Amino acid sequence: MQVTSDKHTGFSDELRFIPKWAWTAAGLLLVCCPILFATVLSRDPKAPSLAALIPLGILCGIVVACYLLLIVYVNQDAGRRGMNRWVWTLLAIFVPNALGIILYFLLRQPLPSICSHCSARIRNEYGFCPNCGNNLSPRCPQCQHAVHASDVYCPYCGNKLETTTSSSQIKAT
C-alpha cells in the first residue's frame, strides 16, 4: 500500500526555482526539434525514414530542453548561494559533455543561513553573525556541548541555562 504525504520534496522545490520563461523555452524546444528533424533531415537521401526521424527528434528535444533547464538552474542557484553566477553559467555552457554542470554540482557552496536576530544571510560555518554579532551556535558553559537557544537545561549535563536577549549568549546559573 502506497503512503501519500502532503510534504513537498526538495526536488520539486528546486524545480520551482527555475523561472517560467525557461520552462516556456524548453517546451518550445521540445516541440520544434521533432518538426525540425522531420522537415530538414528528411530531405537528405541517406536519412532514416520519417517514422524513425520523429522519435529521434523527440529524444533530441528532450535532451536539449533538459540541458537548457540545467543551465538556467545553475545560473539561478549560483546567485542564490552567493557564487559568481556568470562564471558558473559560462562553464556549464562551454565545458563539453555537461562536465561544467557536473563540476558545479560537485563544487557548489552550501545554501546560506539566515541570522535569527537580524535576518542577514550568513554562511553555515560562521559561529557569529558578522552583521550583528549574534551567537549562532550557543554552547553550554559547563560541558561545552552545543545547545539550542530555547533550551532551559543542557541536554548533556543537566546544567540550568539562562538566555539573555541582548547578546544571545547562554550563561550558567
Largest sheet: 2 strands, antiparallel
Average pLDDT works out at: 82
Strand content: 5-15%
Tell me the number of helical segments per DSSP (H or I, 4 or more residues long).
Answer: 5
Descriptive tags:
4 strands, two-stranded antiparallel sheet, 173 residues, two-stranded antiparallel ribbon, disordered N terminus, mainly alpha, elongated, 2 domains, 5 helices, disordered C terminus
Would you give an account of this structure?
The chain is mostly helical. The protein folds into 2 domains: 10-111, no CATH class; 112-173, no CATH class. The protein is built from 5 helices and 4 strands; from the N terminus they run H-H-H-H-H-E-E-E-E. It has helices at 10-16, 20-40, 50-80, 85-94, 99-107, and strands at 113-114, 121-122, 161-163, 170-172. A two-stranded antiparallel sheet has the order 1-2. A two-stranded antiparallel sheet has the order 3-4. The radius of gyration is 26 Å and the shape is elongated.
